[in-house]
Amino acid sequence: MHSPTPPTEPIRVNEAQARRLVLAQALDAADPQGKLVGPAEREQADREALAATGDPARGEALDGKAWLLDRAGRLAALLEHRQPRLATLQQPPAWQGWVAWGLPLAALLAGALIERIDNPKQVNLLSPPLLAFLLWNVAVYFMLALAAFWPRRRPAEPGRWARHLEALVDRPRGGIAQQVAHRFRLQWWRIAGALEGQRWRRILHTSAAAWAIGVAVSIALGGLVREYRIGWESTLLDLPQVHAFLQFLFAPVVAVTGMAPFSVDELARLHFGSGEGVGRAEARRWVFLYMGLLALLVVVPRALLALWAAWRQRWLAGSIALDLADDYFTPLLGRVRPARVLLAIGGAAGEGAHPVMTVLRQASGGAAPSRAGETFTLLTTARGDSLQCVEVPPGQEAPMAARADAPGGRWPAWLPARRRPDAPLVMAGAPAATRADVLLLSCGQPGDLDAWTGLLQEGGSPALLVAGDGCESACAALLRRAPAGGETLPLAALPTWREDARLRAAIERLLPAWKSAGAQRLWTAWEERAHARHVESMRLLSAEVAQAARDSEELGTRPTGVRQLVVREEREAGQAVRRQAMASLLSRVRERQAGGDARLRELHGLEAGGASSLEQHELPERFRIEQSVHEPQAGLAGAASGAAMGAAVDLMTGGLTLGAASALGALVGGGAALVAAAWKNRGAQAPGLSTVALSDEMLQAMARAVLLRYLDVAHRGRAPAEPDVWRTRVDAAVDAEQEALQALWPRLRVEGTEADATASLAALLERLSLRVLGELGGAV
């Protein structure tokens, strides 16, 4: 898979800083559960270090090195109070200082305490211990020279046994603190092995020089208290051979000091079997020659090597290289480093606004390039991350995509052209630094793949093919032949915006590892924007329904009386006025619907107009008519009715009531009718006026309609519409909340409570829409 390295050069730190960083790395690796330093404390250390070194969220440049060092220092400070022994790993161990002085001193004493070279009374010119010591040092110089000039090869991939050994060494052991210390030591030797090697070279060279000085001191002190008897003997070597060997051995001393070596006659007299006496002059010459030889072959070279190792150690201690692209620093820096994710988007020829672009435009709120092939930004975060896109025309071939190693790029034009598998893709017409992290291509049918074959074969970026029905296997086969590989995502897996997480997860799997943290922040912004867009959509639609519930149309007719009931012309005129009022009311409902649709399209990044997947949402014409009553005529009608009933009583009693029943009936009936008419007029939305409004049944139908309109706009261009499925799911969801909706309609009509009722309706519509979206997504 395509995995370019992040644009970060290795940083160099001193030994103290490197130890703190390695300690923090060991803590993060060995204590992922946060038993020593909790996750909340680590996040706080991250934030405080970011605030102290530069936060991109405040428009400041991020200093990755400073942030890592500050964070490591804060974690080490926490360990000082909880695990003091772990905190001491920030400094070199105390025993190194003792060894640096103790080992050379022990070598000096060991060489000085030697009481004899071979035999204290009879010293051999061919002393085996001295010759072995000299030859060992010469062999060391030869191996050092050979190592310095031997060509270094790039380390090959470790073999199976090497991997097993490394796994065995890395195996956790002991408690958390012991695991942290173990991981620290392993990682320290991995990054500072050269430093520790120079430290031990300095100690060993100093010890060898001290040993030679001790041997010289031993020889000198021996000459103070005894008289050396110098001679030689050998079974295999004759006198000429011994003379030639000694001349070669002491040649450096003779060349530097000008001392005369032993002559052949002197060597013949010095033979132990010659029987001749040997004077102190020969013994002194032997002492000076051997002391000079030790100085020239051991002390001076070893001292120079120790000084060189000390200088190298000092330089390495101040310049330890840390690769920020490794598996630890990459995700760690990704938490604070801005990531720029670039997607190359492409759809089939003649497809228009293909589903992939529709999804991305909706996520961005309608962002689009002003010119073809121009990079445009979809999302940004406060941390400075950005999700950018560039459209790729169908049928684009490899020559239209420049490479970073092609002529004009980083690869010099005068060298032969070549192509690396990880060469970044640069879109034609875009800046040279523009790089596509992922090719996001839409394939509605198998024939569309021909448009992308050349680009996939030559491209250096992985591809995500969003495949329509029937072309998934063809897409997978094409990706298997692509050098950078990729994935296939069925278009049916994205039925609603709530399933966009599947698209985001697929993109993230193809991104470089160091961009994962930034991608997560971008996905969070994507999801938050989608949620906010959904909430705003429900607010707009609930306000539309609330306005319809409060809206009414005055009839402009006289209050209902006897004349409207008796006269036909009056009755027909009233019916015509009611029909006109109903039409006017429905016209305003449709105007608000058109305005709501326009705002929904703008909110979802859709262009004006566009074909709807659903037919016009018609409302059942069952209006709520509030007709005012003529109060005097109602009173007269009531009095007449009461009087008639009283007269019936009079007749039944044979006139014994003397008309009192008629009078009382007229009084009671007229009064009751008058009060009832007045009360009815008072309870109307417009007291004293006749109005037409939407009924509860019409508002219920309108709630269904706004949910269907939302589904249509929110998913237009994403996938083939399924209006029947949508309508079935919406009807079931609305029926399940029928009682809650019925309780809201009266509240929406009463002045003073409509604001709270509108908010309650928005929350209810939001719950209903999420339920429908969940059912639609779960059906995939």
Provide an overview of this structure.
The chain has 780 residues and is of the alpha/beta class. It contains 25 helices and 15 strands. Helix 14 (453-458) links the parallel strand 10 (438-443) and strand 11. Helix 24 packs antiparallel against helix 25 (754-778).
Short key terms for the protein model shown above:
15 strands, three-stranded antiparallel beta sheet, 780 residues, alpha/beta, elongated, 58% helix
Radius of gyration: 48 Å
Structural class based on helices, strands and sheet pairing? alpha/beta
Measure the end-to-end span.
28 Å
What is the count of helical runs? 25
State the low-pLDDT regions, or none.
Answer: 397-434, 683-688
Tell me how many strands there are.
15
Shape: elongated
Question: How is the secondary structure organized here?
Answer:
Layout: E1 11-13, H1 15-30, H2 39-53, H3 64-82, H4 84-87, H5 94-112, E2 123-124, H6 128-149, H7 160-170, H8 176-225, E3 230-231, H9 239-257, H10 264-270, H11 280-317, E4 320-322, H12 329-334, E5 340-346, H13 355-364, E6 376-380, E7 386-391, E8 402-403, E9 425-426, E10 438-443, H14 453-458, E11 463-467, H15 472-481, E12 486-490, H16 500-510, H17 516-550, E13 552-554, H18 562-566, H19 568-603, E14 624-626, H20 631-652, H21 660-683, E15 691-693, H22 696-714, H23 723-736, H24 738-749, H25 754-778
Parallel strand pairs: 2-3, 5-7, 5-10, 10-11, 11-12
Antiparallel strand pairs: 1-4, 6-7, 8-9, 13-15, 14-15
